[in-house]
């Protein structure tokens, strides 16, 4: 089978071979890369959408928890007021004393609470004390069985409790049991639902939201609006309440469901959104990726065709020259400006015609070497500029796409390599070396999601002094990999200190990581260990300045490591 394929391949003309080769080497990777980019982008968008939804749920849970604490605190002010307890437990024989106590103690407390909490529509104490009722403020406990919301309370249910009946929301709490006469009096707050749940649309725009009390009774639901907005079929609140958190299928619909409990009140918040809504932006990316990939493929097909035609044209030209030579036309003048393999064939063919193969081959080889040297010299000048220009272009694209993290990384990377390359020089200022390590740390912090802190303590007198480049980066890298990355508990910190001591400049890199053993300290600066570059840095320092200078390391297991670099105060460029 393979032999037949090879035979057919060898029988093809060069042009279709080139076309198929280009197709497999260029176009297929573009398709694979496009598909991979789409799936990665879709996964990233879904993750970001879930995280945003989770943050919104946390915000809403915090808001409801605050409100529940507020109402509970308000209720406790009344429940624990000794005067109010005394009034509702006293068997008044004289109405004059009753109304005196009500006007002096009871109503002022109630009115003050109503003024400070305008969302409380009604405050009522239901008492078993045989005393006159006073409007909605004091009512007989015998009325309770006639209220529909009271029938929803379980026997012996622990107070406080939240109940919704019809369009009203009730917060019910019990007075401390009055030991003198054994009364079981309760306080009922009627809460304005618009005030309590009015911010749901603001906090959770475009999401379905259900709030239940600790027993699963529904306190709030916007399912009617959500079902219409999401165009969902056969969906009710209990489907969401009984679903697990995460992506679930309800009927023929796939939903993303999140659940969060409110500690103060025991409420549960359920929020949901169709997965297709979360993936909406991913579909836009698919369209954009398809357009870009299709445009690239079309452009490549045009370029491949043009390149193939150009290549075949020159091959046909070379064949025609050979046929003319076969007829005896030995004074044929060969001209070509191409430097590729076909151009080389044409040049060699011209050399053969002039009977100067050996001389021309030597000259040609010499020219090739010379061109290669010139190219290498040119690359040494061009490559840094090409790198900086490319990074500048990537930064522009990132800013244009509002990808500020990418822009920050690119700018830091550009600063890092500009100092590191230093136009081929080894001596730089301390200021440039510190800028280099700042750029490196900025990149690492972004890559590690700012999982550790960096502290700089720099004496400004060191900035103007000279040093060899790329000294601090290996020390910082070692501190991260040997210290911070292996730290089990607490937040990591790297401290970079630079100052002048006597006639030396001293750099100190401290970390609060796990520390390293004495054996490892000994190996870091020897040939037996790569030491994350410390060995090479130490050798460079001692070769340049002598054995009195270089790197010293001290460490305490569990507390961290201190690395010091000492260089002369005065260095000749």
Provide a descriptive summary of the structure in words.
- The protein is of the alpha+beta class and 573 residues long.
- Among the domains are: 80-196, no CATH class; 206-278, Profilin-like; 424-429 and 439-568, 2-Layer Sandwich (Heat Shock Protein 90), CATH 3.30.565.10.
- It has helices spanning 2-11, 14-79, 82-89, 95-116, 148-151, 193-197, 200-203, 223-230, 237-241, 275-278, 280-326, 341-353, 357-400, 404-421, 430-447, 472-484, 518-524, 534-545; strands spanning 120-127, 138-140, 161-165, 168-174, 186-191, 208-212, 218-221, 246-250, 253-261, 268-274, 427-429, 452-458, 466-468, 492-501, 504-511, 550-556, 560-568.
- The strands form 4 sheets. The protein has a 5-stranded mixed β-sheet. Strands 7-6-10-9-8 form a 5-stranded antiparallel β-sheet.
- β3 (161-165) and β4 form a beta hairpin.
- α13 crosses α14 (404-421) and α14 (404-421) runs antiparallel to α15.
- The protein is flat, with a radius of gyration of 40 Å.
């Amino acid at each position: 089978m393979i032999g037949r394929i090879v035979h057919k391949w060898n029988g093809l003309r060069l042009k279709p071979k080139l076309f198929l080769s280009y197709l497999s080497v260029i176009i297929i990777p573009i398709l694979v890369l496009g598909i991979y980019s789409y799936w990665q982008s879709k996964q990233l968008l879904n993750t970001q959408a879930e995280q945003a939804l989770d943050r919104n749920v946390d915000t809403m849970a915090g808001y409801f928890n605050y409100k529940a604490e507020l109402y509970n605190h308000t209720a406790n002010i009344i429940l624990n007021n000794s005067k109010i307890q005394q009034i509702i437990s006293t068997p008044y024989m004289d109405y004059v004393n009753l109304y005196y106590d009500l006007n002096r103690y009871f109503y002022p407390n109630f009115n003050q609470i109503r003024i400070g909490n305008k969302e409380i529509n009604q405050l009522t104490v239901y008492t078993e004390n045989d005393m006159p009722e006073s409007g909605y403020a004091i009512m007989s406990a015998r009325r309770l069985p006639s209220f529909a919301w009271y029938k929803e309370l379980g026997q012996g249910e622990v107070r406080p409790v939240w109940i919704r009946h019809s369009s009203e929301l009730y917060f019910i709490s019990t007075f401390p049991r009055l030991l003198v006469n054994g009364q079981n009096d309760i306080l009922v707050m009627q809460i304005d639902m618009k005030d309590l749940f009015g911010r749901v649309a603001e906090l959770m725009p475009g999401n379905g939201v259900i709030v239940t009390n600790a027993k699963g009774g529904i306190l709030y639901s916007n399912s009617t609006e959500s079902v219409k907005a999401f165009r969902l079929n056969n969906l009710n609140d209990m489907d969401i309440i009984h679903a697990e958190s995460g992506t679930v299928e309800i009927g023929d619909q796939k939903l993303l469901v999140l659940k969060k409990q409110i500690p103060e009140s025991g409420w549960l918040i359920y929020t949901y959104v169709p997965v297709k809504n979360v993936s909406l932006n991913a579909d836009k990316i698919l369209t954009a990726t398809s357009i870009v990939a299709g445009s690239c493929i079309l452009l490549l097909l045009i370029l491949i065709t043009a390149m193939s035609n150009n290549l075949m044209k020159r091959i046909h030209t070379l064949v025609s020259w050979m046929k003319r030579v076969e007829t005896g036309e030995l004074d044929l003048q060969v001209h070509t400006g191409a430097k590729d393999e076909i151009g080389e064939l044409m040049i060699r063919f011209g050399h053969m015609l002039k009977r100067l193969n050996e001389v021309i081959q030597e000259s040609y080889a010499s020219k090739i070497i010379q061109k290669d040297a010139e190219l290498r010299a040119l690359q040494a000048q061009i490559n840094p500029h090409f790198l900086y220009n490319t990074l500048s272009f990537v930064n522009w694209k990132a800013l244009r796409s509002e990808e500020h993290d990418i822009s920050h990384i690119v700018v830091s990377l550009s600063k890092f390599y500009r100092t590191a390359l230093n136009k081929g020089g080894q001596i730089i200022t301390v200021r440039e070396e510190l800028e280099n390590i700042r750029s490196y740390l900025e990149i690492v912090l972004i890559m590690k999601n700012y999982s550790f802190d960096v502290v700089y303590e720099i004496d400004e007198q060191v900035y103007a002094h000279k040093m060899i480049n790329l000294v601090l980066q290996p020390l910082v890298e070692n501190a991260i990999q040997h210290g911070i990355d292996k730290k089990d508990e607490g937040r990591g910190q790297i401290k970079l200190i630079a100052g002048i001591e006597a006639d030396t400049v001293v750099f100190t890199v401290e970390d609060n990581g796990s520390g390293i053993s004495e054996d490892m300290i000994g190996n870091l600066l020897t040939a037996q260990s790569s030491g994350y570059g410390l060995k090479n840095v130490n050798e460079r320092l001692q070769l340049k300045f002598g054995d009195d200078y270089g790197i010293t390391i001290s460490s305490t297991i569990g507390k961290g490591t201190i690395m010091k670099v000492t260089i002369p105060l005065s260095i000749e460029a």
